[in-house]
C-alpha cells in the first residue's frame, strides 16, 4: 500500500521535527522517517546554545513551554587568553542574550509536541531510498520491521544529517561541496557538578583550546582541544580536570569544580557546505547540507534558520499558490549559512593552537584575539554573530 503525504521528511533530529511541527500548524501534512529509535535520537549529546531566532522557532512550533521554564539566559561569555579571563557582554554590545538549553531536551520537546498533535513519526525506518526527485511526484521506499513500504510526496525535506541519504541522492554533477577539516578534535565531558562560572568560558592557551559550558546550574559540559586520533584511554578523569583548569587559568581549582564523568567523547572538527541545497523536489535542511565546527555553537541555529526559510516557502506554495519563496530557498538559506561558516571558522582559528610548524599563523590568530579583546568595535562584531544574524 502506498501512502501519500504533502512533505516527506527524512530524519527526526531537530531539523525534521521542527519542520514537521511548523508545517502541521500551518495545515500542511508530513510523514517523518527516522532510521534510529526514539531513545537513540534523544540520547545523543549535542551542543546547547540557542540564538533568539531558534527560541522563537520553538515558540512558533508550540514546543517552548519547558524551554521557557528551564532554560538559562546568558548575557555574555568569558574569554581566557593564556589564563587571563575577560568578559564579553552581548547585552551591552548588541542588546541580545543567548539561551542555554540542551539539544536533546529540545528534540524530546519537539517529538512530544508532534506526537501530541497526532504527528506521524516512523522510527526505525531502514534503507530509505528516494526516487523521482526531479519529476512530478517523488517516491520514498523504506523497510519497516522487515517489510517494504512506499510513500509518495509532493516534496521531500532531507533533514537526515551529514551521513544521511538525501544529499547522496543528488547526482554528483548537480552539486558542489566545500570542505575544511581541522587538524584537531574536541574531547567532550559531561559531569554532574556546577559550572565554574555563570557563563561559558572559552579559552585559548598555548596547550590548546578549552571550553567550560553547561546544561544547567548543576551539570557541566566541558571540552578540550586534542589531536583528531587521540586515544581517550590516555585521558583519565584527573588528567582531564587538571588540563581544563590550566587552560582556563584556574590551576589551583579556585572556581573549577570536579566530579565523576557521566560521558566522555571525541568530536571531529569540520566545515562543510553543499551547494546547492535543492535538487528538483528535494530540499536539504540542517546538517544534511552543512556542518560547522562547534566553536561558535551554530549547528542547531543554522538548522533552525533553514527550517524558517523552507517552511515559509512551503506555506506560500500551499496557502497562497506562490512558488517564488520556495524557489529562493537555497539562495536565502545559503546566504545565512556562509556567514555562520565564516564566524565558526574565525572563532575556531582564534581559539585553537595549530601545529608548531604553523608558528606564524598561531601568532596572527593570537594577535587577532588580543585585538578583539581590546576593541569594542571588534567585540561588537563577535557579539553580533554569536547571538545570531537575523533571518
Ligand atoms: N534515513 C532516515 N533517517 C536518517 C538517515 C536515513 N538514511 N540518516 C540519518 N538519519 C537521521 C539520524 O538518525 C538523525 O536522527 O537523521 C537525523 C538527523 O539529525 P541530526 O544529525 O541531529 O541533524 P539536524 O536535525 O539537521 O540537526 C542539526 O543538530 O545534529 C545536530 O550538530 C547538529 O547541531 C546540529 C543540529
Ligand atoms: C555545549 O554546551 O555543548 C557547547 C557550547 C558552546 C559551544 C559548543 C558547544 O561553542
Give a verbal description of the structure:
- The chain has helices at residues 14-25, 38-43, 52-60, 65-70, 90-94, 103-116, 237-247, 299-320, 324-327, 329-351, 359-374, 376-387, and strands spanning 2-10, 30-33, 49-50, 72-74, 76-81, 84-89, 98-100, 120-122, 125-131, 139-144, 147-158, 176-191, 201-204, 210-216, 219-226, 261-275, 278-279, 282-284, 290-291.
- The protein is an alpha+beta fold.
- It has two domains: 2-54 and 66-71 and 100-179 and 270-347, 3-Layer(bba) Sandwich (FAD/NAD(P)-binding domain); 181-269 and 348-387, D-Amino Acid Oxidase, Chain A, domain 2, CATH 3.30.9.
- The strands form three sheets. Strands 1, 2, 8, 9, 10, 11, 17 and 18 form an eight-stranded mixed sheet that branches.
- The model has no long low-confidence stretch (mean pLDDT 97).
- Bound molecules: adenosine-5-diphosphoribose (APR) and P-hydroxybenzoic acid.
Total beta-strand segments: 19
How many domains in all?
2
Find the CATH topology of the largest domain: FAD/NAD(P)-binding domain
Report the major sheet: 8 strands, mixed
Rg = 21 Å
Would you tell me the overall average pLDDT? 97
Under the CATH scheme, the architecture of the largest domain is 3-Layer(bba) Sandwich
Distance between the termini: 40 Å
Helix/strand-derived category reads alpha+beta
Total of DSSP H or I helical runs spanning 4+ residues: 12
Extract low-pLDDT stretches: none
* Proportion of beta-strand residues: 25-35%
Query: CATH first level of the largest domain: which class?
Result: Alpha Beta
Residue share in helix: 25-40%
CATH superfamily heading of the largest domain: FAD/NAD(P)-binding domain
Large-scale geometry: globular
Bound molecules: adenosine-5-diphosphoribose, P-hydroxybenzoic acid
